[in-house]
């Protein structure tokens, strides 16, 4: 059976990381995988996580199974984190969460649920988007199409985006990046979110808001503007939430699928269906990281520490973005970094072709995704000049 398999390729992002680790050049720069890095290029365990984790370890009485929907306390704090300003939705049972294996698990569970409801439902993602959005839905046999997102010259092409989503067939699914769009870094303004909401209502689309960078774009409150807005005007939606970046819990695989329903009964039903789907794929999620997040979000003191840390991280990313733009101006190649000035959050796309990316990696030891996506937190005082001069040398 295995001999007849066609060759396939490993995941390009994870492979890139491996190549970077094995590169012995001291000048090497990692702008690849989406990890937050501090100014030393490290991704240390957050202080709030360290404290909560030691408490979790010390107070563990057992490690018995939890149910398929995960840790109730975790589900509650995530619902609260997103809907604290809309607490009546929680009180009225219109919001329920289910624990998932990171944000990927949340998107996957959403996809399985939507497929179960209607396998012929179309799914619409931004062009470009996080590659796994496309792969997950395609893998389940669903039809995936794109709505345009960025303009040729850089920046968000909102009129074209809106025009295109207005043509999406009624009842289809639309995936929206809640904040820190991956890979462009272009987020919608409040006014643009209102315009998208109108079209979503008009066409009866089902939104799945992917919230993988909460707190890392414009801060904890502003980053969930679309979630709050949509919940004020829609009966139903999903939010796929990841705790990987904002809690730095990448490999602990902590996330949630948050359900907004029309009423308590429909929400309970949706959560039961989701739990059954979870049962046949993962049985039950990993609890350790979820305990850490619940501890942080339910202790006022730890919550304060976390909020401060996260805002420092977000400031550092903003600072790195500014530093790159300033250096590009200094070296007279700001055009190549024009996209960087338009965005927020961890990512930006620089206008390099596939071959340029290979040259940057092989000759300059600068690692980025094939699409030209760079992780801005990989930029620091020591490497900013080198990054800009290398890209300038390449692009001429
Ligand atoms: N959605 C988007 C847009 C992402 O960029 C990522 C992480 N790269 C995820 C979801 C998944 O995150 P996790 O690592 O929590 O599975």
UniProtKB/TrEMBL annotation:
Cofactor: pyridoxal 5'-phosphate
Gene3D superfamilies (UniProt xref): Aspartate Aminotransferase, domain 1, Type I PLP-dependent aspartate aminotransferase-like (Major domain)
InterPro entries named in the record: Aminotransferase_I/II_large (IPR004839), Asp_trans (IPR000796), NHTrfase_class1_PyrdxlP-BS (IPR004838), PyrdxlP-dep_Trfase (IPR015424), PyrdxlP-dep_Trfase_major (IPR015421), PyrdxlP-dep_Trfase_small (IPR015422)
Aminotransferase class I/classII large domain span: 27-391
Transferase recorded as keyword: yes
Pfam families: Aminotran_1_2
Coiled-coil annotated spans: none
Protein name in the entry: Aminotransferase
Biological source species: Franzmannia qiaohouensis
């Amino acid at each position: 059976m295995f001999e007849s398999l066609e060759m396939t390729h490993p995941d390009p992002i994870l492979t890139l990381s491996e190549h970077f680790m094995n590169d012995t050049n001291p000048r090497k720069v990692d702008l690849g995988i989406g990890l937050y890095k501090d100014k030393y290029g490290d991704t240390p365990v957050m202080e709030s996580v360290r404290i909560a984790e030691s408490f979790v370890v010390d107070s563990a009485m057992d490690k018995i199974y939890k149910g398929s929907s995960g840790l109730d306390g975790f589900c509650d704090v995530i619902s609260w984190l997103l809907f604290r300003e809309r607490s009546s939705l929680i009180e009225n049972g219109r919001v329920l969460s289910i624990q998932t294996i990171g944000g990927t698990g949340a998107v996957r569970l959403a996809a399985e649920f939507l497929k179960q409801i209607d396998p012929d439902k179309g799914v619409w993602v931004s062009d470009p988007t996080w590659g796994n959005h496309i792969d997950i839905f395609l893998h389940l046999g669903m039809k995936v199409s794109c709505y345009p997102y960025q303009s040729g010259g850089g920046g968000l092409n909102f009129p074209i985006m809106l025009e295109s989503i207005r043509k999406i067939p009624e009842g289809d699914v639309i995936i929206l990046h809640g904040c820190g769009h991956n890979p462009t870094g272009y987020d919608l303004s409040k006014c643009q979110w209102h315009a998208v909401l109108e079209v979503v209502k008009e066409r009866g689309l089902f939104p799945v808001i992917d919230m993988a960078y909460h707190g890392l774009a414009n801060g904890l409150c502003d980053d969930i503007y679309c979630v709050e807005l949509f919940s004020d005007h829609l009966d139903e939606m999903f939010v796929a939430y990841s705790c990987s970046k904002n809690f730095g819990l990448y490999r602990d695989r902590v996330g949630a699928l948050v359900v907004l329903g029309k009423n308590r009964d429909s929400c309970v039903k949706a959560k039961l269906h989701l739990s059954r789907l979870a049962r046949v794929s993962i049985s039950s999620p990993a609890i350790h990281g979820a305990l850490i997040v619940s501890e942080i979000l339910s202790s006022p003191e730890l919550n304060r520490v976390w909020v401060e840390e996260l805002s420092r991280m977000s400031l550092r990313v903003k600072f790195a973005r500014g530093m790159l733009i300033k250096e590009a101006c200094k070296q007279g190649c700001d055009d190549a970094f024009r996209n960087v000035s338009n965005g927020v959050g961890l990512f930006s796309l620089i206008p390099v072709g596939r071959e340029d990316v290979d040259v940057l990696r092989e000759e300059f030891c600068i690692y980025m995704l094939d699409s030209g996506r760079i992780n801005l937190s990989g930029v620091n005082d020591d490497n900013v000049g080198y990054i800009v001069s290398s890209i300038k040398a390449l692009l001429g």
